[in-house]
């Protein structure tokens, strides 16, 4: 296992990049702690797989260094990094049995046969293939093959890190949940450093100790699921995390007051007078409808999703979403909305500003 340090790391696929826009990965410096489970989360094309391939050694960065512990592995080939990697689409040996596929990484390193047999049985139980060990991989379904690929990535206990590149794409939804749970159990048991690439926030938030959110080639926040939800460091995080995402409203800020179309909202904390593109962000869960107190809101429609209702509304010309708890009746007279000052975030040019006690 290893602490992974990314030092002044950046990458461009162009031979002579001239500006920041030419870089698929913008310059970054981060330390990922030994034994943690991380999820790399972001939309398609944001640089997740590029970063994972640099960590694994499949790609040499244009600039910067990668350290495993104190060792510089920037130019080291994948074989010298002592990692396991599971790819988006299954990579299996069709002519081998399930047992032989799972055992291959251990046999390749000359492990004791008794240990190999025991470890293969453990992993087969974990991925639900204990009754298929004698079958050839050729005749198995795509999701079964991906389970083999997952199992082969996890069979070794001595790796520095296990890297997963959207490994559950071909797995059915029920099995996705089961495998994520098993991956978490494996992490708790063996303490491997794990990095899991996904564009699915549910996968990221249920798998990881910390989520690394990427946007436009940049890491915009590393945090726990709670930190990403409560205090998004960037407007993209607010938008991308949550369903629906954070409401963002253009505003003028003066001290502890925000003004949206001239309407005053208490912020609870002081922010001075920030410049640039200034917005307030508030989660739909922290807005409350009322028939009596609050600011005027125009309800367009109500969507009942079972566990709660999503109210689509207009607030001074801006679209907002409001989450009403299960059992709440949204009456025609509920035309007011209140903001919880303690739950409002303030952003200038997309980055969160820390307020001071008012």
UniProtKB/TrEMBL annotation:
One of the entry's Gene Ontology molecular-function terms is: ABC-type ferric iron transporter activity
The record's annotation in Pfam families points to: ABC_tran, OB_MalK
List, alphabetically, the GO terms of the cellular component aspect. ATP-binding cassette (ABC) transporter complex, substrate-binding subunit-containing
Q: Which Gene3D superfamilies does the record match to this protein?
A: 2.40.50.100, Nucleic acid-binding proteins, P-loop containing nucleotide triphosphate hydrolases
Keyword Nucleotide-binding applies = yes
Membrane topology, as annotated, equals: Peripheral membrane protein
Protein name per UniProt: ABC transporter ATP-binding protein
- Family per similarity comment: Belongs to the ABC transporter superfamily.
Matches recorded under InterPro entries: AAA+_ATPase (IPR003593), ABC_transporter-like_ATP-bd (IPR003439), ABC_transpr_FbpC (IPR015853), ABC_transpr_MalK/UgpC-like (IPR047641), Mo/tungstate-bd_C_term_dom (IPR008995), NA-bd_OB-fold (IPR012340), OB_MalK-like (IPR040582), P-loop_NTPase (IPR027417)
**Record carries keyword Transport:** yes
What residue stretches are annotated with the ABC transporter domain? Answer: 4-241
Query: Where in the cell?
Result: Cell inner membrane
Family matches, as PANTHER family:
ABC TRANSPORTER ATP-BINDING PROTEIN, MALTODEXTRIN IMPORT ATP-BINDING PROTEIN MSMX
Keyword terms: ATP-binding, Cell membrane, Membrane, Nucleotide-binding, Transport
Q: Which SMART domains match?
A: AAA
